[in-house]
Amino acid sequence: MSIIGTYLWLAPPAAKKSGAGPQVVATLPVDPTLTPKGEEPPARQVSPTPTKAKPSPTPSPTNKAVSPAYNGTCDANSPYGFTVVTADSTLVALYKQMGVCWVRFQIHVDDIQSGGSYNWGTLDSVVALMNASGIHLDVPIQCFQGSCFSNPYTPTPDEMASFATQVATRYNGKSGHGYIDAFEIGNEEYDANSSFSISNYGPILKAGYQAIKAASPYAQVGMYGTFLSNPSRTTDVLNAIFGGGYGAYMDFMNFHYYNQGLDPRVDVDSMHPSFDHKWQMMNSIAARYGFGGKPIWVTEIGWPTQDMSGRSAVTPDVQSQYLSYVTDHASTSGIVKKIFWYTINYGDQPNTIYPTSGPLPAFNALKAYVKSKPVW
């Protein structure tokens, strides 16, 4: 057992306690390799058990009053969204059914920027449709060149600032191209590149944050979505940001929770914490550095119903149970402010809750949850 800040971590028997030091430290062993999402080392499987209005210019989210029951109007404080690669009229129709108000749209920088010229066509269309439909947008600034996961390229602070200035200026709501509500400084590439020193991320984060705020001051800006399950990696990332003096250059912390398809209700082992222990640990580290109120966004989370490399498949009913569990626990956390499911409107991708055959139980569970609790 170890106390990190105000967070009590009941470490599994296999966990080893790290030595004391000036930084916040993990009590769990460091994974010797950093591998892309879906390729983490296998973990012990645990059988599931059944379970019964404009934003403020300050970095922190607003808390404006909203109706206690869903009335079909999307408020920026709505916590629900999906991470998608296709944002079209089909997605809008699905969102209207569920009352979901945020979309995290993934597009690569190298699909927009090439040789000093810009092709904004795809993003222009997505922004126009989402704005017209009253759906809020979050866009990670990712994949500057080459593969996003196989030894991905990491931009310099100047490269990040340059593109961030371009995209935030174009979509600041004043330039005739619509509005993007939030940006992330990267996606998963800073975890996927094993040769990248996480101590170098802070300057990239700061450069992107300052560039976006200068061009679009009301937009929210967050860190990249750290995705590795290992708590020691999460600790290293946050120590690098907060310990390096970069905590003020993000409006929200950010993580992805796939956990190899395992049960989010329990600590499966020392490398795979429960959903609650993951966000509690992040909050505790932030608090140690004086940022205890820093919101957390979970910008990717999901469970596949088909086999995937490095990830255990679950039944549709179990997928629904897990969705309901993490959504409910996020809603009562007081610190997790948004949760983006992966995914929907993506054919038969294994994580989807609405494949081509029709909606899965998770779709209907989320629809009912949003209707009963449109904001947290």
Can I get a quick summary?
By secondary structure, the protein is α/β, with parallel strands linked by helices. It is built from ten helices and twelve strands.
Task: Describe the protein's topology.
Blueprint: E1 2-4, E2 7-9, E3 80-84, H1 89-98, E4 102-105, H2 109-112, E5 113-114, E6 117-118, H3 121-132, E7 136-140, H4 157-170, E8 182-184, H5 189-192, H6 201-215, E9 220-222, H7 231-243, E10 253-257, H8 275-288, E11 296-301, H9 316-331, E12 336-341, H10 361-372
Parallel strand pairs: 3-4, 3-12, 4-7, 7-8, 8-9, 10-11, 11-12
Antiparallel strand pairs: 1-2, 5-6
Helix pairs in contact: 4-6, 7-8, 9-10
Residues in helices, as a percent range? 25-40%
Hey, roughly how much beta strand do the residues contain?
Answer: 5-15%
CATH superfamily: Glycosidases
Q: Number of helical runs?
A: 10
Write down the secondary-structure element order. Answer: EEEHEHEEHEHEHHEHEHEHEH
Rg measurement, Å: 20 Å
State the CATH architecture. Alpha-Beta Barrel
Q: How many structural domains can be distinguished in the coordinates?
A: 1
Task: Catalogue the unreliable spans.
Answer: 1-70
How is the CATH topology named? TIM Barrel
Q: What is the molecular shape?
A: globular
Q: What structural class should be given to the helix and strand makeup?
A: alpha/beta
Instruction: Kindly state the number of beta strands.
Output: 12
What integer is the average pLDDT? 87
Distance between the termini: 32 Å
